[in-house]
Write a structure and sequence with these properties.
By secondary structure, the protein is mostly helical. The protein folds into 2 domains: 117 residues, no CATH class; 114 residues, Tetratricopeptide repeat domain (Serine Threonine Protein Phosphatase 5, Tetratricopeptide repeat), CATH 1.25.40.10. Helix content is 75%, strand content 0%. The protein contains 12 helices and no strands. The chain is flat, with a radius of gyration of 28 Å.
Length: 283
C-alpha cells in the first residue's frame, strides 16, 4: 500500500470521526441562531406597533380606554408568535442534506488537497457560503405588513431592507406607503431623505424632481438636518446653483468638528462652490 493511499485512508477516518461529533452540534447551533433571529424580528415589529398605538392614543385617534386592552392584545400576539413552532425548530430535509453533503465532501476535499499540494488554485476550492438571512427578514416584514398595512414604521423597515439589497424601486414604493399610512413618519426628515435617496437611485443618481421636493420638505421640518443639508447642497451644485450649494454646506459645516476629516472635505467643497458661483453667469 503506497504512502499516499495510506495517508488518504487515515485522513478519511479522522475527518469522519471529527464530523460525527461536530455536525449534530453545528446543525443545532444553526437552528438556534435562526430561532433567535426570528424572535428579534418579531420583537422589533412589536415595538414599532406599540409605538404607533401610543402615538394614535396621544393624538386622540383611539379612546384612552381602549389603549390598555390594545397593548395587552399586542403583547399576547407577540408571545404567541414567539412560542409558535417554526420550521427551524426541527432540522428539515434541506438542513440534513447540507450536513450529509459536508460530511461527504470534506474528507474528499482533504484528500484532493493533499494530492494537489503545490497547485495554488486548489486553495480557491471553498464551500458555498450560507445564504443570507436578509431574504427571510424581508419576507417576514412583508407577511407582517399584509396583516398590519397601517404600520408606518414597518414599511420603513421594509424599505431599508430592500434598499440594502439594491431593490431601489421596491424601497421607494415602501417609503411612499409609509408616508401615506403614518403622519408621524411623513414628518420624519430622516425618512424623507432616505426616500429621496431611493428615488434618486431609481433615477440613476439624479435627485431632480420628486427627490429634491422631499429634501426641501425635510429641511422645512428641520432646517439643520445634516443629511438634508448635504443632499440639498449636492442637488444645488449639480444644477449649477453654486451659491445655494455653498450656503447649504456652510450650514452643515457649522455642526462639524473643526479639523476633522469630514470638516476639511466639506470646507474644500464649499470653497469650490464659491469659486464657481463667483464666475457663473447670472441666470
Amino acid at each position: 500500500m503506497s504512502s499516499v493511499l495510506l495517508f488518504s485512508l487515515i485522513a478519511l477516518a479522522l475527518v469522519g470521526v471529527a464530523l460525527a461529533f461536530l455536525l449534530p452540534t453545528l446543525v443545532r447551533a444553526r437552528d438556534r441562531r435562526q430561532d433567535g433571529s426570528r424572535a428579534e424580528i418579531k420583537s422589533e415589529i412589536y415595538r414599532q406597533e406599540l409605538a404607533e398605538l401610543e402615538d394614535e392614543a396621544a393624538r386622540g385617534d383611539i379612546p384612552a380606554a381602549d389603549l390598555q386592552p390594545a397593548r395587552a392584545e399586542l403583547h399576547r400576539r407577540l408571545v404567541d408568535d414567539i412560542r409558535a413552532p417554526t420550521s427551524a425548530s426541527v432540522p428539515g430535509k434541506r438542513t440534513w442534506a447540507i450536513a450529509v453533503a459536508v460530511a461527504v465532501a470534506l474528507p474528499v476535499a482533504a484528500v484532493v488537497l493533499y494530492l494537489v499540494v503545490g497547485r495554488p488554485q486548489a486553495l480557491d476550492e471553498q464551500a458555498a457560503p450560507q445564504a443570507s438571512s436578509q431574504g427571510d427578514y424581508v419576507e417576514q416584514l412583508q407577511t407582517h405588513l399584509s396583516r398590519q398595512p397601517r404600520d408606518g414604521r414597518g414599511w420603513v423597515l421594509l424599505a431599508r431592507a430592500q434598499a440594502e439589497r439594491s431593490e431601489f424601486k421596491a424601497a421607494a414604493d415602501a417609503y411612499q406607503k409609509a408616508l401615506t399610512v403614518s403622519e408621524k413618519v411623513a414628518k420624519d426628515p430622516a425618512v424623507l431623505c432616505e426616500y429621496a435617496d431611493a428615488l434618486g437611485m431609481v433615477q440613476g443618481g439624479d435627485l431632480k424632481g420628486k427627490p429634491a421636493e422631499l429634501i426641501a420638505q425635510a429641511l422645512g421640518i428641520n432646517p439643520k438636518h445634516p443629511v438634508a443639508l448635504e443632499m440639498a447642497g449636492s442637488t444645488a451644485y449639480a444644477e449649477g446653483r453654486y451659491a445655494d450649494a455653498a450656503s447649504y454646506w456652510k450650514e452643515l459645516l457649522a455642526g462639524l468638528t473643526p479639523g476633522s476629516e469630514r470638516y476639511v472635505e466639506l470646507s474644500t467643497a464649499v470653497a469650490r462652490a464659491e469659486r464657481k458661483a463667483s464666475v457663473a453667469l447670472p441666470r
